[in-house]
Specification:
The complex is a heterodimer of chains A (255) and B (339).
Chain A (H helix, E strand, L loop, with lengths): L3 E10 L2 E11 L4 E6 L5 H8 L7 E6 L2 E2 L5 H7 E4 L11 H6 L14 H13 L15 H15 L3 E5 L7 H17 L3 E5 L3 H7 L2 E5 L5 E5 H4 L2 H8 L3 E6 L2 E6 L1
Parallel strand pairs in A: 3-8, 3-9, 6-7, 7-8
Antiparallel strand pairs in A: 1-2, 1-4, 4-5, 9-10, 11-12
Chain B lengths: L9 H27 L7 H10 L4 H34 L12 H14 L4 H23 L7 H25 L2 H12 L8 H17 L1 H9 L1 H6 L4 H23 L5 H13 L3 H25 L8 H25 L1
Helix pairs in contact in B: 1-3, 1-13, 2-3, 3-8, 3-11, 3-12, 3-13, 4-5, 4-6, 4-11, 5-6, 5-11, 8-11, 8-13, 12-13, 12-14, 13-14
Classes of the chains: A alpha/beta (255), B mainly alpha (339).
């Protein structure tokens, strides 16, 4: 079981300080949501955790190995990331795009084999994209494209899943059911899910841990239940939020 | 389409798989055409016969010593320009990138002309051309790079302005050159497939370039989908990009020193290939090399036959063939998409 650990991590982008001297361990089976205002560096933090961007200070450890000392291939087999949406430059089909997730598992001389294609069709089915294998990416809606990217991430078979606003563009059904099922599966398999979320209530629904970024380098992290207070969220977003109980859960709405 | 059914990839891979054998046949045909047409037309049977017998007849001399080397060098130049085009499009993540449009060929030409002006040897001229191409590419890179990605407009503007600058540079060099140099310079600029053939080095360069890029074709697929994405999937993007940057510059320079600046091949050929076979570089790379070669072999044949005995610059022909074909394919492609 893989753990992901950050030690004395400082991540800065421009004048924003996403986190300062942050030390914490992400355990297998945990689902984390990263919350914070626009521009506090949530995406930057995610890229840093993925090893795509150097940290300002501090180290990131996978098991007990520093991320800097892990080969690219090994890293890509361990950590996967879902980026915010990008427009494709060249035409590509749904199947081709999903299969890109297999890249870290194929050697230089190998192509995608039948097993890979079989896995791809299973992943696409899981994301309700079966029958769309040959569709061109540009002909898809934003939500469909998002699900293709999620399928690629599933196919990458990593232990750590970093998701930048995964539910963006998704319909309610996909937000709740499909995303919920994906996260549940990853959790059951002992994966670590860390996602940047905009919607506090969806974050509370999916995740058991929270990482709050206040924008000046101050961070709070821990159990979602402990951190989900009116006070914390009001300060986090710079706007008063109220907590309303319903269906045995708590919902936060702007006051 | 059920799980595991092999016809998941049927449409796409069938189209792609058909492309290569068809292109291989077309290469043969284009050579036959190039060898038989000219100031003296020789029928195909005789052309094939000359290859078999090797007799020292007039036809044999024309085919083997005049036309074959020309056709071979046209093929290699076309292949190099097309390959350079594919690589630049991946590198700049822009389907409009092309060595000619972005002024890379112009940079190579200016450097080569300067070398001639200084009286350098032909080997050094080629090296200078490669240097000019790299410098030009580096300029496009640094100047056109906005935040993160290259925007099409900015890239094209930078390239077009650079190309215009190199054009002025060429005029300047020609204006100040002593008349003794002028003839060979002008001759070189027009581009000539000459009598020497493509030479071993260029042929090997094209073959090795294609082989190497094929090995990294999957990485190129990822890179064209986005740099960060490719990096996240384990591609050493810096190394891959530096290699394709150098290779594209060297290929352009090699093509320019052999045949002058021929536009359009690097832009149109990969585009046409992508429209037919999709954008998997494992297919796009070899198909583009073959199609680029075919296009130039045919263009070279036309250039010396249409107004014979007058020779047209090959670049004119490539534009005449390429522009309508490109527009047609683009239109057809967009219709298919609309369905």
């Amino acid at each position: 079981m893989t753990t992901l650990q950050v030690r004395h991590l400082t991540v800065e982008i421009g004048s924003a300080v996403a986190c300062h001297d942050l030390s914490l361990i992400f355990h297998p089976g945990e689902v984390w949501s990263v919350l914070g205002r626009n521009g506090v560096g949530k995406s930057t933090l995610l890229c840093t955790l993925a090893g795509l961007r150097p940290a300002t200070a501090g180290t990131i450890l996978v098991e007990d190995m520093s991320l800097d000392h892990i080969s690219r291939r090994k890293r890509a087999q361990t950590i996967g990331i879902l980026f915010q949406e990008q427009d494709p430059t060249f035409p590509a089909t749904v199947l081709e795009t999903a299969l890109t997730g297999r890249h870290p598992w194929l050697s230089l001389f190998e192509g995608e084999g039948e097993t890979d294609i079989e896995m791809a069709s299973r992943a696409l089915e899981q994301l309700d994209l079966d029958g769309m294998e040959q569709r061109e990416l540009w002909s898809l809606s934003g939500g469909e494209r998002r699900r293709v990217d999620l399928a690629a991430l599933v196919l990458q078979q990593t232990r750590v899943m970093l998701l930048d606003e995964p539910v963006n563009h998704l319909d309610l059904h996909y937000q709740v059911d499909v995303m919920g099922q994906l996260v549940h599966n990853w959790q059951q398999d002992g994966g670590i899910v860390i996602m940047v979320m905009h919607d506090v209530n969806l974050a509370m629904r999916f995740s058991d841990h929270l990482l709050l970024l206040f924008g000046d380098g101050e961070t709070h992290h821990g159990n979602a239940a402990d951190l989900a207070t009116e006070e914390n969220f009001s300060r986090l977003y710079g706007h008063p939020l109220r907590r309303y109980p319903a269906n045995g859960q708590h919902f936060f709405l702007p006051a | 389409m059920r799980v595991g059914s092999p016809d998941l990839t049927y449409n796409q891979s069938l189209r792609a798989r058909r492309a290569l054998p068809l292109l291989a046949v077309a290469v043969g045909l284009s050579f036959l055409i190039a060898l038989s047409f000219g100031s003296a037309n020789i029928d195909w049977a005789t052309v094939v016969e000359t290859f078999k017998t090797g007799s020292a007849s007039f036809d044999h001399t024309v085919v083997m010593e005049l036309r074959l080397p020309r056709a071979a060098s046209a093929f290699v130049v076309g292949g190099m320009l097309a390959l350079a085009g594919v690589l630049m499009q991946v590198l700049l993540r822009n389907p409009l990138a092309d060595p000619y449009v972005l002024g890379i060929s112009g940079g190579a030409a200016v450097a080569a002309l300067l070398a001639m002006l200084l009286g350098w040897q032909s080997g050094l001229i080629s090296t200078a051309a490669a240097g000019g191409a790299m410098l030009s590419m580096a300029l496009v890179f640094t100047l056109a790079r906005g935040r993160g990605d290259w925007s099409s407009t900015r890239l094209l503007l930078t390239g077009v302005v650079l190309a215009a600058g190199w054009g002025a540079g060429i005029s300047f060099i020609l204006a100040v050159s002593p008349s003794s140099h002028l003839y060979s310079m002008l001759f070189w600029m027009m581009g000539d497939f000459g009598n020497s053939g493509p030479g071993y080095i260029r042929s090997i360069l094209l073959g090795a370039g294609l082989a190497t890029t094929l090995l990294f074709a999957r990485s190129l697929n990822l890179l064209s989908a986005g740099e960060l994405r490719a990096e996240a999937l384990g591609v050493h993007t810096l190394a891959v990009r530096l290699s394709i940057y150098s290779l594209a510059s060297i290929l352009t320079a090699a093509a320019v020193t052999l045949a002058g600046t021929i536009g359009f091949v690097g832009l149109v050929v990969p585009h046409m290939v992508r429209l037919v076979t999709g954008s998997d570089h494992r297919i796009v790379l070899p198909s583009s090399v073959l199609l680029g070669g075919i296009l130039l072999v045919l263009a070279e044949t036309l250039a010396r036959t249409v107004l014979a005995p007058r020779m047209l610059p090959v670049g004119v022909i490539t534009a005449f063939i390429g522009v309508p074909l490109f527009l047609y394919l683009l239109r057809r492609g967009s219709k298919r998409r609309a369905k």
